[in-house]
What we know:
It is a single chain. The chain is an alpha+beta fold. It is built from 4 helices and 5 strands, in the order βαββαββαα. A 5-stranded mixed sheet has the order 4-1-3-2-5, sandwiched between helices. Helix 3 runs antiparallel to helix 4 (133-152). The longest helix has 20 residues, at 133-152. It starts with 9 loop residues before the first strand and ends with a helix. The mean pLDDT is 89.
Amino acid sequence: MPPRLPVMHLIRLTYASVARSGLGYEALTSILRSAATRNEELGITGILCYSGNAFLQALEGPRSEVSALYLRIARDERHSRCELLGATEIDERDFVDWSMKLVSWEGALTADRRALLLRHARTASLEPWTMTSRQAHGFLSELAEFERKQQAA
């Protein structure tokens, strides 16, 4: 009988958190560069959208690796109010292009971006804690498509 291959269960985990005061853009990009390298090694992909001190992030990958990463993130003292919005098994990734994509919500607040947020969150400002898991996923997926089009232009 041939050996059984391990089954890889892919999940998408979405959470919100608040950056501690003093965490500037340069520190954030430094953290994300090292996270992107580690995520690539672990087979994790994702997107992080931030506005002011609010973070909304989706992580995709093998269930055990994503779960372990979320536990580390939740204990990280550089942010607080870490709240799990949802976790679900997936058949395919939505953020496969990036080991970690960083998107500043305030960086280019256009009419299209405002409409995107209103479609998914029904608010004029990014307040991830008011979103359901489905709203957060829809928002981040559409934001990722928007970012892909911007990169291609």
